[in-house]
Amino acid sequence: MAKFKRILLKLSGESLMGEKKYGIDEKRLGEYAQQIKEIHDMGVQIGIVIGGGNIFRGLSGASKGFDRVKGDQMGMLATVINSLGLSSALGAIGVKARVLTAVRMEPIGEFYSKWKAIEAMEQGEVVIMSAGTGNPFFTTDTGSSLRGIEIEAEVMLKGTRVDGIYTADPEKDPTATKFTDITYDEVLARNLRVMDLTATCMCKENNLPIYVFNMDIVGNLRKVMEGEEIGTLVHN
To answer: What distances in angstroms separate CA 105 from CA 8, 67, 112, 234, one per listed residue?
Structure first.
């Protein structure tokens, strides 16, 4: 029995690189698709937002001389490329997936609306919501917070390369300890970079819990849905 009925799954674009230095690693993409299929088969309604950091990141582009607005628009298009890749991988293993875009670009994807997304999920489709919020100066973290709240998800599952939230960066500080759960207020007080400030505050204000876990270990997504405590829960 799945712990949640409807989720927003936030995937890292950088994790899609897998063993590569750039772009999409087909092996990692296939593993993600298989993990998503496992929980889809449990009857979970799934909305997904993917970052674009494996292709282009607007903020780092701006530091190299790109206009920030154009850089962010390039980042939005990077998320569309990743979303198309994931929808293709899901389709290949028999899972119906639909790509919605925050910026009009038919026939690449349908223009996003809350009701279209919910209707598709209720019909058993995995809905991949791309192009962030459609606006510059907002990250895909904020995009996933917004979409999670809009589609009335019970939780945002943030699949990362680490197994939760620590008191400090565990790769740099060997004394860092992991939280099994933490409040939004404590995240903000400790200045822990779970997500950017805008995204964190949106989730706090709208009471959307976040569960941070390592998506790169195959089988972890199913474990989260079965209630195993393998990550960190952020809540009010």
So the answer is: 23, 22, 10, 35
User: Which pairing describes strands 45-50 and 6-11: parallel, antiparallel, or unpaired?
Assistant: parallel
At 99-116, the pLDDT tens digits run 999 999 999 999 999 999
Q: How far is CA 158 from the centre of its chain?
A: 6
CA dist., res. 26 & res. 34, Å (int) = 12
CA distance 61 to 59: 5
Question: What is the percent of the chain where pLDDT is above 70?
Answer: 100
Q: Residue 156: name the closest of 37, 4, 13 by CA.
A: 4
- Asked if 220 contacts 230 with a C-beta cutoff of 8 angstroms, the reply is yes
Q: What is the pTM of this model?
A: 0.95
Phi, psi of 168 (to 5 degrees): -155, 175
Q: 47: closest CA among 156, 135, 123, 138?
A: 156
Q: Locate 221 and state its tokens.
A: 């997504």
Residue 69 tokens read as: 């607005």
| Residues 160/213, Cβ–Cβ less than 8 Å | yes
Q: Which domains does the chain have, with CATH numbers?
A: 6-235 (3.40.1160.10)
Helices then strands, each counted (H, E), the chain: 8, 11
